[in-house]
């Protein structure tokens, strides 16, 4: 019996900016640091800004300082924001598919369940209004935990009033899918942007039929 659908954003509704674009290398070039070192630092420090512990600009500035940037005192958060916004790609058909599922199945709770910095999450929402797809927002910075930790899932499911067996996790990361399955959740692994469009409606429909017949 599934009542709650948890949906990731990066890799599902949007591209993964850090992994798939020149966003971090472009910052490295502007501030004269090694791009590979900066990327490793961003990946290792992601939990700090995704959990809401630190502002993403603060983390980037610190990483540039650690990497020996001679220009760190000229850090320009506005420029970084514009670069990030220009790197984001919204998968419009996937957004439309989620909206269709939400309209078709109002009995299900749709939940935004993504790892993201508050600043980036809000920046994307200002342009694409993806928050409006969901009845509940459980981005990592709102929960104070990051996927795929057990703490993230426990806090999110508690906020949703759902048990693991009552939830479907839709995500592109294998580690998240594995963790969710380990907790007893249903899963949909989005290995490409096309997977959500081809499988979400069927997966949810099957689950809803299960709800209605049990």
Structural commentary:
The chain starts with a strand and ends with a helix. It has helices at 17-20, 23-30, 35-50, 56-66, 77-87, 92-104, 118-128, 140-143, 150-160, 174-182, 193-213, and strands at residues 4-7, 109-112, 136-137, 167-171, 186-189. The protein contains eleven helices and five strands, in the order βααααααβαβααβαβα. The protein is elongated. The longest helix is centred in the last third of the chain and has 21 residues, at 193-213. With 214 residues, the protein is α/β, with parallel strands linked by helices.
Reconstruct the topology from this structure.
Blueprint: E1 4-7, H1 17-20, H2 23-30, H3 35-50, H4 56-66, H5 77-87, H6 92-104, E2 109-112, H7 118-128, E3 136-137, H8 140-143, H9 150-160, E4 167-171, H10 174-182, E5 186-189, H11 193-213
Parallel strand pairs: 1-2, 1-4, 2-3, 4-5
Rg from alpha-carbon coordinates? 18 Å
Rounded mean pLDDT score: 94
Outline the biggest β-sheet: 5 strands, parallel
Show unreliable segments: none
Give the structural class.
alpha/beta
Return the string of H and E elements: EHHHHHHEHEHHEHEH
Q: Roughly what percent helix? A: 55-70%
What is the straight-line distance between the termini?
A: 8 Å
Strand content: 5-15%
| Beta strand count | 5
Strand order of the largest sheet: 3-2-1-4-5
Shape: elongated
């Amino acid at each position: 019996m599934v009542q709650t659908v948890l949906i990731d954003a990066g890799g599902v509704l949007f591209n993964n900016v850090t992994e798939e674009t020149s966003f971090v290398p472009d910052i490295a070039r502007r501030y004269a640091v090694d791009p590979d070192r900066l990327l490793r630092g961003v990946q290792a420090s992601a939990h700090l800004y995704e959990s809401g512990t630190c502002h993403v600009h603060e983390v980037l500035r610190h990483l540039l300082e650690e990497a020996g940037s001679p220009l760190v005192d000229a850090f320009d958060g506005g420029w970084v924001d514009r670069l990030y916004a220009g790197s984001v790609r919204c998968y419009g058909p996937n957004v439309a598919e989620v909206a269709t599922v939400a309209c078709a199945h109002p009995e299900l709770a749709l939940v935004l369940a993504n790892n993201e910095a508050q600043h980036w999450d809000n920046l994307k929402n200002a342009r694409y209004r993806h928050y409006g797809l969901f009845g509940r927002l459980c981005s990592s910075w709102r929960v104070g935990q990051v996927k795929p930790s057990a703490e993230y899932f426990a806090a999110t499911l508690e906020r949703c009033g759902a048990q693991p067996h009552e939830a479907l996790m839709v995500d592109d990361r294998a580690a998240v899918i594995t963790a969710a399955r380990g907790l007893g959740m249903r899963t949909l692994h989005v290995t490409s942007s096309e997977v959500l469009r081809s499988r979400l409606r069927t997966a949810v429909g099957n689950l809803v039929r299960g709800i209605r017949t049990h």
